[in-house]
Amino acid sequence: MPSEALKGIRVLDLSRILAAPYCTQLLGDLGAEVIKVERPGSGDDSRSYGPPFVNDAKGNPTADAGFYLSCNRNKRGITVDHSKPEGAALLRELAAKSDVFIENFRTGVLAKYGLDYESLKAINPGLIYCSVTGFGQDGPFSARPGYDGVFQAMCGMMSVSGLPDGVPGGGPMKVGVSMVDILTGLYASSAILAALRHRDNTGEGQFIDMALLDCGLASLSHYVQNYLISGNVPERRGNGGFGGIPSQTFKCSDREIFIVASTNKQFGALMRVLGEPELASDPRFDAVQKRITNRDTLLAKLDALFLKRSAAEWLEDLEEADVPASPVNDVSMVFDNPQIQYREMLAHTHHQVAGELPILRNPIRMSATPIGEATAPPTLGQDNDAVLREVLGYNAEKIAHLRACAVL
């Protein structure tokens, strides 16, 4: 059974790629009815962002990439050509019966088809309209295109990621995951939920203007706040943190582990595990601020100590001492983690073409409105007939006409 947290909320989703589809997937996970609208014939651009492509039940690759599958579960899929008058009219009909409308076209594009906020507000005053763009609806860059990597570079995220200058491989580094896209999706979902709450109280819809650049900058959080109060530009520290010391990776005799022992209690426990308890009372290292000031000296000592044993040996002793630590896993190792297995973060659903499809489970756990089993991301146009029949009351003849006119 789907979650009932957002039961009765209908989302008309004209978004593509990652940021906005990630947002609507979250709303679908929480029980909203999400109707994903794609271009006839080609669909969401992310369907082609492979390999890998999911295989069908016979083991043959399909046209749907793993990228697309990652952010489109719990949605119904239809195809509509909004550039045709009949297609735009159809979407206006759906918007009139929806609670949320979300799109990520360039600023001003949908106004040409009567699908902008003012046009849809006129027929549905309670509509929550969320527009996700690279730079927002106004400002000198508002007409520019952009993608996640561009925003990581522009907002400063790359400048604080990667190894320091002067070491091999040093320099700004893009975060591997499309982090600005994902964070924007999360910010957008929060904004939509707040707008729905406001509408519940007032009956008023509203326009939500989400910009990837804004979200990327906001996500730098304490890095930016530290700069604002000190004037010091944050330096790159590779796998080292900016809080207490140590908080970073260390090479063992066989592989790397990540340690956080920032409090005095944790640091003392770490030093006992490493066989150097006197370092915890060393006047250079006996307080958080002192360890930060003398970080290079301390880390050189720790680097040498960790090389003496294997990761498994250190991790066993660190767990016993209650020091937070982990092996540095790649994705193939993650699902062997007994905690991940217990929390059932790997789920399966039935895909119309692929059969059983492994997917990530939504991490939200709620006692009264739990998130149920997911439906698979829709194949292109999978729900055309059902949505038009059930939501708009179209008969078979009208649907056939739209199909013949290449609207669907």
Automatic annotation (TrEMBL):
Keyword vocabulary terms for this entry: Transferase
InterPro entries the UniProt entry points to: CoA-transferase_III_domain, CoA-Trfase_fam_III, CoA-Trfase_III_dom3_sf, CoA-Trfase_III_dom_1_sf
GO molecular function: CoA-transferase activity
Domain of life (superkingdom): Bacteria
Pfam families associated with the record: CoA_transf_3
Signal peptide: none
PANTHER family: SUCCINATE--HYDROXYMETHYLGLUTARATE COA-TRANSFERASE
Identification of the protein by name: Crotonobetainyl-CoA:carnitine CoA-transferase CaiB-like acyl-CoA transferase
